[in-house]
Amino acid sequence: MSTIFFDVDTQFDFLLPAGALYVPGAERLLPALARLRDCASARGIVIVSSTDAHEEDDPEFAQWPPHCVRGTAGQQKPAETLLEPRITIPVQPGDYPVGGARQIVVEKQALDVFTNPNLPGLLEGLGVRRCVVYGVVTEYCVRCAALGLLQRGYEVEVVTDAIRSLDAAAEQRTLEEIVRAGGRLTTVAEVCGD
Fold it and tell me: 94: domain range?
């Protein structure tokens, strides 16, 4: 396998207006997210999805309002982002067999998905070279994922019409930073070959 889709934090608490840490306009991403899921499914591409999985007293809540608490509705992902069969990899170090999974959900308790110690080995085991990155929030978790992948030598493409930010200027600076680091910008249509 050389390409994966890297779906960052597309969870109800971020995507929907009733969510605990709603990103304004993020619900409008759902058609693009569904299109990327369908594209991955049709091409046999694995989706690696980061998800916040916080405890009720998580230290991150000193900086951000409580959100994506494990087991709550807000922590879940919408159907537009899901493939079967799917496996979830917690933050506890371990050997998690992913053979046959079409989607691998990588839990995290911090902004940076690479705080899950299982992610580097997972990517290596999948034989990844290229990562198509999308999700929320551009200047926070998408930035951490894209730059973390680039720092580890992966080709990174950020899908600009499948991301959402809290601040347009911060999003622009983030995209420029990713391009300077060697990333490339793309669109859903380009990724899916339309």
Answer: 3-192
